[in-house]
Target: ABC transporter permease
Amino acid sequence: MWKTILRRMLIMIPEVIILSILVFLLAKAMPGDPFTGSINPKANPAQIAHLMKMNGLDGPWYSQYWNWVVHLFHGNLGNSYQYQEPVTRLIAGRATNTLWLALFTMLLTYAIALPMGVFAGRHEGKLPDTIIRFYTYVTYCIPFFVILVVGIWIFGYVLGWFPTTGSISITASGWLDTIGSRFYHILLPGIMGALFSTVNIVQYLRSEVIDAKHSDYVRTARSKGVPTKDIYRHHIFRNSLLPIAAFAGYSITGLLNGSIFTETIFSYPGMGLLFINSISFRDYTVITALVLIYGILNLLGTLLSDIILSLVDPRIRIQ
Model:
């Protein structure tokens, strides 16, 4: 399997190169520049041209791309025009917040979705199954940002149970207080994100459980007198996890990539909010770095899904 993983990673190299070129060209194709709004909306065009030349933004795209790649291999993604600090340090600080939020959302998603999907499949056609299916249909139909806005309005502003901005309280002191404050800030966005993310998992798992409980091996286990609890635990549940495992890698990287709505609405200082602000200020260095990171994460998510699937079912080997 290790040889296959190495081969897949080598195949990713030309994909990343093509992705980097497309990202760089799309960023350069954006109208505007990173200097006009930051110094003066009515700035002299000659002054803007001088700043563009000083930052190497006046040459042809292939020259700018080559300089960017050379600096990239030296671990230098450039400086942010908006924040006036190295992009690597800027993204590293925001990535920690995004990682905490994504990790909490993922754990909560599977903690809710797995028992809910098995319970709905086990009680097919009954009241619990109807309630769960109604929940998934409603959640699937409502746009994600609407759920976030309603959640922050009810639990953040009306009830005042959770903070509505930031990632940590300014009054937090000590490592224990810091961890508690960080968890308190990701609780509401994590719960709202998990409730939205459970839909597909619940529907897939419910369908797999229904198919599995009518299969021949389950009938054989019942005829041998195996308790229903053990049948669901050792036979139905394990075999029903295969489609879920196939999407596990995409789910992990998708939470990192899909944090833009959550972080923007909650003003959570992560990579998603940084990406939106960078687009607004035409911060090319940050935009290209973040989109490239998102693209690499998607490629790694594909490989991770295959690896998880092969571990869950030893009969499957990634090719």
Q: What stands out?
A: The chain has a mean pLDDT of 77.
